[in-house]
């Protein structure tokens, strides 16, 4: 009887590992990056035509992106950090960071 339980637990473990491997496929990571990019760009309301640089995997719990672009109604370059909650599939945007202070502007 104990052998049947061990076999059942082993089968359940293998099935769960197979599911985890599937979730880490190239297509799944590409979809993840596309979702992070789309949601972060939509949330970047203070940047005209934001450009997103996506961390391809993020952290354990979050997707990460750096958004850059021209601030609406002003000159210059700003950046914002975007954090994407992998479970909730929601984003939060950090405050505006000066592109010059970050070294994103070319030297004159």
Automatic annotation (TrEMBL):
Secretion signal, residue range per the UniProt entry: 1-23
- Which protein is depicted? Nitrogen fixation protein FixH
Annotated keywords: Signal
């Amino acid at each position: 009887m104990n052998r049947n339980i061990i076999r059942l637990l082993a089968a359940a473990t293998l099935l769960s590992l197979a599911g985890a491997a599937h979730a880490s496929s190239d297509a799944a990571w590409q979809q993840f990056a596309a979702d992070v990019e789309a949601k972060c760009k939509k949330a970047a309301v203070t940047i005209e035509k934001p450009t997103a640089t996506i961390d391809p995997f993020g952290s354990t719990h979050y997707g990460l992106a750096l958004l850059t672009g021209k601030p609406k109604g002003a000159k210059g370059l700003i950046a914002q950090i975007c954090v994407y909650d992998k479970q909730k599939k929601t984003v939060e945007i950090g405050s505006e960071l000066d592109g010059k202070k970050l070294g994103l502007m070319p030297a004159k």
